[in-house]
Amino acid sequence: MPADRISKLQRRSCAGGSVRVEGWLRSARHGKERSFLDLNDGSCLSGIQVVVEPDLPNYEALVKTLKNGCAVSVFGELVTSPGKSQRYEILSKGIDIVGEVADDYPLQKKRHSFEFLRTIAHLRPRTNTLGSVWRVRNAATMAVHNFFQTRDFLYLHSPIITLSDAEGAGEMFRVTTLDAKRLLQEDGREDFSKDFFGDETHLTVSGQLEAEIGALAMHDVYTFGPTFRAENSNTSRHLAEFWMVEPEMAFCDLEEDIEVAKDFLKEVIQAVLSDCEEDLAFFNERIERNLLNSLRNAVNTQPVHMTYTDAIEVLKGKSKGFTFPVSWGADLQSEHERFLCEEYVKGPVVVTDYPKDIKAFYMYVNDDEKTVRAVDVLLPGIGEIIGGSQREHRHDVLSRRLMEAGLPLDRYKWYLDLRRFGGVPHSGFGLGFERLMLFLTGMSNIRDVIPFPRVPGYAEF
To answer: What global pTM score does this model have?
Structure first.
């Protein structure tokens, strides 16, 4: 175990070189001459070996009954280990069982499938892989906050319950305290005036609109919280509940927005490389062999910039066809994005100026009236990792865009007011945190990089 990790396992220092540590047993091997216990408290990937001699008073009655999953408190002496795989071990002078483990404990000392581990999400953080995921997620979370806090962004807590559809897609979860029958009027129409909030409310799909409120008062803000999408997709890339990082900057055009997005991505990845060396080495060995190279390349390589129109021409020139056809005006699919990164550029790509008709109502319309000032940052192995835009700050154009999207102007009156009352050019972007986690860990299924996945038909734990 690395020397700088000993302090994380150590809970109470005792006299001399003695320590007391607590944790859970990953394994217990009982030989004729002594017992070897692999103790881990979740603070790092490596546990620490506890060696127990048979002269311990409760050796036969207690120590030899210990097994995988037991929670124990160990008092002993920290010594240099003669084993090659560890630097230190503990010579036990006393052991107490803090929590016994039943015979049907499902985590045994063998490899379990990720599908099986999702059925025991309350126990899966005790495994090497999911424990490493949680530690990387923690480091990435702190890096997100550190990036913005050191640049004088204010952290905004955006609401989870909302009246507005930030994306105009309509894939939102309804929030109600009424049953379906009580919602209906005599003419069969829904009457939300009787509901808890007196209106039709949903779980938010984005904190962006509220972030714009913050930016147009505080200059630079960011939100970082859970968002929800009622999309009935059972794929390895979709969740019903996921976390979004969404900064918003006033007096900012698309070019400045892109520079912040690139710096943000590089700094967060570099922070995780620095803080999670042991966990990333594990992922590189067991999950994705090229992970460390991919992360370092993302930090050290400047992305190639191209417009959507240029990207379409590149994709049309590919010798072998795609599953999804390529044409100007159609959205880029994951296979298109990954081709641009992995085969054409062989690195990160920034794509700008998408067709107006496939993007959200709030994006600034270019002079050609066909495209908007939108940007996607693409990474190898993932595709889109960041999506952003310069926001439409012209009141008349935004009003027109809302009507074109079929959204009621009265619902967005406050949003339009931001343009009437001292509106300025402003920009922002969104990063799906779980997609970043896929890139940081090399994991293949998004359900394995969030502690408690919510997907169609499943919301346990």
So the answer is: 0.93
